[in-house]
Write a structure and sequence with these properties.
By secondary structure, the protein is an alpha/beta fold. The protein is about 45% helix and about 20% strand.
């Protein structure tokens, strides 16, 4: 039985789409299905309003953006068809919608178990980062950020980044179908956890009581906390990290940095 019945894969018409589809298929397994989406950007929703003096220029720009959006959606569909031809028995479907690139994707993703999106690269900013944040805050569903070369099996060795926050607790709960089948689960913490919230050891014990092969590990973070956690997860052989998104405010993380932005 699949852990996730419907995995929503958001495509961008770029070289990252194949990796997103591969990761979505790994989560869906044999019983689930992949629901792929390409959003054709609507210039009316993307561009700000302009006065009459700029109407002609705005109309020309909107025409150019419309053609670019059509081409991007066509690449996404073509890439999906090529992937499905090689994917074998994976149950998969493709849909195209017109609207705001990130807001529309987040809204449609609400009818899925989990959302798969490409991890933003520097050359993709800020559009790709906006998509991830829209899905995190607007879909109400857990979000899988997919690297360029995802592992064939996701969830064999899982790392849980625990800071005692509400978002961390929600992420842990959303990931339970994967944790139950994992070979090992390591609950990482760095920088200490407030005494008023459960510790990483307490979380590991609770998971163990439910049959999960879990252990806790404290990571020494003398500098960048996110970097230290990534290094510890890599050393443990983790193929999946579970964490809450923006336990602090986005403004604070934009100014001071934070684990979410690092990831």
């Amino acid at each position: 039985m699949s852990s996730f019945n419907t995995v929503f894969a958001v495509l961008a018409g770029s070289r990252s789409d194949a990796a997103v589809l591969d990761a979505a298929a790994a989560l869906a397994g044999k019983e689930g299905r992949v629901s792929a989406l390409a959003v054709r950007s609507d210039p009316v929703r993307v561009l700000p309003m302009v006065g009459e003096a700029g109407a002609a220029a705005a109309a020309e720009l909107m025409s150019v953006l419309e053609e670019q959006a059509k081409a991007r959606a066509a690449r996404a569909r073509s890439g999906f068809e090529a992937w499905r031809a090689k994917a074998g028995a994976v149950r998969a479907e493709f849909q195209e919608a017109k609207g705001h690139p990130s807001e529309t994707a987040a809204a449609l993703a609400r009818n899925a178990d989990v959302v798969a999106v490409a991890r933003p690269r520097e050359e993709d900013e800020p559009m790709a980062a906006a998509l991830v944040e829209a899905c995190l805050f607007g879909s109400g569903r857990p979000v899988l950020m997919v690297p360029p070369n995802p592992p064939k099996k996701i969830g064999a060795r899982v790392g849980v980044l625990w800071d005692g926050s509400r978002t961390a607790a929600r992420a842990l709960g959303d990931a339970m179908p994967l944790l139950a089948d994992a070979q090992s689960v390591t609950v990482f913490t760095a920088g200490g956890v407030d005494e008023e919230v459960p510790s990483a050891d307490a979380v590991a014990r609770r998971l163990q009581a439910g049959g999960v092969k879990a252990a806790a590990k404290t990571v020494a973070a003398s500098g960048e906390e996110g970097q230290a956690l990534v290094a510890a997860a890599a050393e443990a052989g983790c193929d999946l990290l579970v964490m809450g998104g923006y336990g602090h405010s986005r403004l604070r993380e934009m100014i001071l940095g934070g684990v979410t932005r690092h990831m």
